[in-house]
Write a structure and sequence with these properties.
single chain, about 260 residues, alpha/beta, eight-stranded mixed β-sheet, 8 helices, 10 strands, globular
Length: about 260
C-alpha cells in the first residue's frame, strides 16, 4: 500500500509547463501551486506578458506557457514560438529554460491528436530534465479524456467519460470548481492517478519510473484507446499529479 505525503518546503528550482489550453490549465496549475506555496508566472500569449503570483518559496518558480497550437503534431514546428516566449520570460523573470524541469500537459483529444503523432512524443519526452535524443527535455503527460479529469478525481469521482466536451459538461453539472481545490483534494487526485495507472498497466507505480516513463506512458495510451474502442469511454485519468511526484512535492511512501 502506498501513502502520499506533501514535502511542503521542497525547493524545485524552475519548472516549465507547456499546456494545451489558454485558460483551464493556467487556472488549475495556478491554484495547485498557490495551495502549495510556490511562485507562478502565467504567460499570456495574447499580449506577450506574464502574470506573476508570489509564493513563500523564493527559490522555486513555476512557468505556465500555452502551446502555439492545441494539436500535439504542431509542437515540433513551433520552435520559433517557444524561443520567442522563452526570450521574453528570460528578460522579464530570469527564466533559465536549459536548467528547468519541463512538463507537457495535453488532452487525449481524439478529434485532433492521433496515436501516430502522440506515441513519438511519449518516446522522446520521457523525462522532465533529460531527453532520449538530447534535443529537448520534457515529460509528456496526458489527461483522459481531458484536463477536467483532474477535477473529477480530486473530488473523489472516477465516473468514466468519453470526450473533452462531455467532461466539461460533467464538471459544470456537478459543480466541481478549481477554486474549491485544497491540499486534501490535490492528494486525492494523485492517489486516484496512481490507482488508475496500476489498474491500467498492471505495474506497481514507483516515482523512479518517471525517469524513463515512455513504456508506461505508451501502455496507458494503448489500453485507454482500446477501452474507448470498446466502450466509448476512458478510465478517468489525469497524469498532472505525476509532475508533482516527479518534482518531489508529493512523496510516495510504502506503508
Amino acid at each position: 500500500m502506498t501513502d502520499l505525503i506533501f514535502n511542503r518546503d521542497k525547493s524545485i528550482g524552475q519548472v516549465i509547463y507547456i499546456v494545451e489550453g489558454d485558460k483551464t490549465e493556467h487556472l488549475l496549475l495556478r491554484r495547485v501551486f498557490s495551495i502549495l506555496g510556490y511562485s507562478v508566472v502565467s504567460y499570456n500569449k495574447n499580449n506577450d506578458s506574464g502574470i506573476y503570483l508570489q509564493g513563500r518559496n523564493k527559490y522555486s518558480r513555476v512557468f505556465i506557457i500555452s502551446a502555439a497550437h492545441p494539436s500535439i503534431v504542431s509542437l515540433n514546428s513551433d520552435k520559433e514560438y517557444f524561443d520567442r516566449v522563452y526570450r521574453i520570460l528570460t528578460e522579464e523573470f530570469a527564466l533559465d529554460p536549459e536548467n528547468s524541469a519541463v512538463f507537457y500537459l495535453f488532452d487525449r483529444d481524439r478529434q485532433s491528436n492521433r496515436p501516430k503523432h502522440i506515441i513519438p512524443e511519449l518516446e522522446k519526452k520521457c523525462n522532465s530534465r533529460t531527453s532520449s535524443d538530447f534535443d529537448v527535455n520534457g515529460l509528456f503527460l496526458l489527461s483522459y479524456p481531458s484536463i477536467e479529469a483532474y477535477l473529477s478525481t480530486a473530488n473523489y469521482d472516477n465516473t468514466e467519460l468519453g470526450s473533452g466536451a462531455s467532461a466539461k459538461r460533467y464538471i459544470e453539472e456537478l459543480g466541481y470548481s478549481i477554486n474549491d481545490l485544497d491540499a486534501n483534494r490535490v492528494l486525492e487526485a494523485a492517489a486516484s492517478m496512481i490507482s488508475a495507472i496500476e489498474n491500467i498497466t498492471g505495474i506497481h507505480f514507483d516515482a523512479e519510473q518517471l525517469d524513463h516513463f515512455a513504456e508506461i506512458n505508451k501502455a496507458i495510451l494503448l489500453s485507454q484507446d482500446a477501452k474507448w474502442a470498446r466502450d466509448h469511454r476512458y478510465v478517468t485519468l489525469s497524469l498532472l499529479s505525476a509532475s508533482l511526484i516527479d518534482l518531489g512535492i508529493i512523496e510516495c511512501v510504502d506503508s
